[in-house]
Amino acid sequence: MGTMPLTPADIREKKFHTVRLRQGYHEEDVDELLDRIEATLVALEGGPRTGPLVTADEVRNSRFRTTRLSPGYREDEVDDFLDLVIADLAGRGLGHAQEQEQPPPLPPRPGPAGGTGQTRYQEPRDPRHGSAPESPGAPGQPPRRTGLTPGDVREKQFATTRLTTGYNEQEVDDFLDRAEFTLEVLQRGLPEQATLTAAEVERVQFATTRARPGYDPAQVDHFLDVLAEELRRYEQPH
Q: In terms of Cα–Cα distance, which of 167, 173, 131 is closest to 152?
């Protein structure tokens, strides 16, 4: 069974272990960010919108005060959980602040009755690493056995460049988060929940980097061609 998007309850009920004799994250700082994330998910599910939607970039760039003399949250637990949040928000089209100018993302796909606490990823955020169960096909239909799958996107690896121009790795990763999410809902027979189209894949442009490692542009471009072709199969079924 595929994993599901995060829910407000996942955020509200999340508990972290505390540390006392070594450095931890200031609990109030972390709790404040989680409150904003929860409010964002409530708004995405059709509830009241109480402020600006938090984006994956904002979560990724968050900084917390650290504490040593008083209890604080375990840093590795907080970081791992925020990786899941970043992937989830990027998958819903909330990777960057400017994306909020677009229509709000559609609500997440419905899960099985009573199903809570499951997240879209069980592995760390980077879609280049790890693996997760493949998503089943839409109810009543056999899973597709050909073409690109969400797992193909998640596990795709690109060579990195150091002395020549490469694509900004974070931008490519965020975009592929959206691609994986889109393929997942398309394979479930829910095209209205897709956050990416073939045309967007063909138009996307990534920032380039020369002073630090970046993904090989030729490899990324080739993979995007394959991705656009796969999305076009769903958009123009035979």
A: 131
